[in-house]
Amino acid sequence: MEDILLVHRKSNRNFSEEFAALQDAAIFKTCLRKILFCTEMELGNYADVIEPEDTVLRGEKALSLLLEILCGLHSPIVGETEVFGQFKLFVDSRKQLQDPLFGDHQKWLNFIMAEVKKTRAQHLVGLGSQSYGSLLRRYTKDMDSVTICGSGHLAQEILPWLALKKSVQVICREPAKMQAFADKYDNLTISTYNDAFIHGEALVIAAPLTDERIVELMNKQDTRPHAVYDLRGEANALSDIVASQFSHVGFMGLQKFFAEIEETKKDTTTKLEALKAALLERALAFTQRTELRPLGWDDICA
């Protein structure tokens, strides 16, 4: 393997930037960790900034950890793509600085980029829904329109998961909170509770509305929603009301969401352990590979 190692800091704390050695250092940053890339010869330059909690990784261990991180296996939402996107931007920035460690012909880098793409396509697509937004996207996949009640953190977390619908409606008390989303999504309409008529096939309750207010909203449209997803935490009787007054409307409450997320986590944990073992095997195979040289001799690439 090429002469490369990682200094992994599992923390949101930066490496101390007052050290001159770090001014041009290759440090990949996310909200959960910092990774310093360097060669074995350069490691001594960073001795003063490495802390006891940091981990120095080489060879297949360095590669396998990087693969796990870039595949989203260590992310709060397993399998997310954001960290890989951040890494590609980081690599581009290092290439612009003409960092030889990130050159186009670096075999370790080409291996990482290709392996992440292959692993995501083969093992992480549809791995499981572990958030309200991902579950709602799955439940409403055959619906063209959705209505969300609320403008708080929960509603803002959910909305991007549903943004590819033909129509997304947000009903809330403070439309200004959702203006940034309105500027981003052409298919989004925002209205207040007083002037709203629900037009979504699915109704998502992401605000502390009363049962009576929700029923009132459901009655303010000619065609009832096909399903109601209630994410309120407090006890309520909406399930019984929907069953008695809107018998054709499906209902799913917060406890069902909790149960499905927990079940998914159990199944995902088993799959992730097997995937991590497979990534380590691939990294080991890469570091111990044999290459055929054009003049006819083989050598082991270390």
In total, the number of strands is: 12
Number of helices: 9
Instruction: Summarize model confidence as the mean pLDDT.
Output: 86
Q: How many structural domains in the coordinates?
A: 2
Rg from Cα? 25 Å
What does the main sheet amount to?
A: 6 strands, parallel
Order of helices and strands: EEEEHHHHEHEHEEHEHEHEE
CATH uppermost class of the largest domain = Alpha Beta
Which structural class do the helices and strands define? alpha/beta
Q: Which outline best applies?
A: elongated
Termini separation (Å)?
Answer: 4 Å
Portion in strands: 15-25%
Helical amount: 25-40%
Order of strands across the main sheet? 7-6-5-8-9-10
CATH architecture of the largest domain: 2-Layer Sandwich
Q: Which topology of the largest domain does CATH recognise? A: Beta Polymerase, domain 2
User: Which residues form runs of ≥5 with pLDDT under 50?
Assistant: 296-302
GO molecular function: glutamyl-tRNA reductase activity; NADP binding
Protein name: Glutamyl-tRNA reductase N-terminal domain-containing protein
Pfam families: GlutR_N (PF05201)
Domain Glutamyl-tRNA reductase N-terminal: 18-94
Descriptors:
Beta Polymerase, domain 2; 4-stranded antiparallel sheet; 2 domains; 302 residues; 9 helices; alpha/beta; 4pyrrol_synth_GluRdtase_N; Rossmann fold; NADP binding; 6-stranded parallel sheet; elongated
Descriptive account of the structure:
- The chain has 302 residues and is an alpha/beta fold.
- The chain folds into two domains: 147 residues, 2-Layer Sandwich (Beta Polymerase, domain 2); 124 residues, Rossmann fold (3-Layer(aba) Sandwich), CATH 3.40.50.720.
- It has nine helices and twelve strands.
- A six-stranded parallel sheet has the order 7-6-5-8-9-10, with helices on both faces.
- Strand 5, helix 5 and strand 6 form a beta-alpha-beta unit.
- The radius of gyration is 25 Å and the shape is elongated.
- The termini are close together.
- This is Glutamyl-tRNA reductase N-terminal domain-containing protein.
- It comes from Bdellovibrio bacteriovorus str. Tiberius.
- It holds the Pfam family GlutR_N.
- One of its GO terms (molecular function) is glutamyl-tRNA reductase activity.
